[in-house]
Structure prediction request, 119 residues.
Amino acid sequence: MNPAADLLLHLRSRGYGFALDGERLRIEAPENDDLTALELELLVAHKADVIALLQAEPPARTPGWEHAAYDPFGPTKPSVQCPVCGAQDWFRAGDGWTCSTCHPPLERLAREWGERPCP
Ligand SMILES: [Zn+2]
Prediction:
């Protein structure tokens, strides 16, 4: 174990969440909890190592979807092809990732079809 891994494990066990936003480290604190001065100091000192650890972790899977080939509700765009049509053009529809070939986004359909008056 290294200090950054220890720190990550320790804070996660206290309910802290960590995420990367590009190169930025985002920390989600549990309610009514503050980092101690020591924890903050360690986090600042080992920030680069913590980011490297997070980058090396596989992306978190949505609970209940660990079995699936891709996570339809994951934080990042699926890196697999659509199991139905084979395309790899995902977009966010609501909370999930949707294949834009099987389920074209409404804005695109509206653009392609143009505006038509109701009969
Ligand atoms: Zn598809």
Remarks:
- The chain has four helices and four strands.
- Helices lie at 3-13, 37-45, 47-56, 106-113.
- The pocket of zinc ion is lined by residues 82, 84-85, 87, 99, 101-102 (CB under 6 Å).
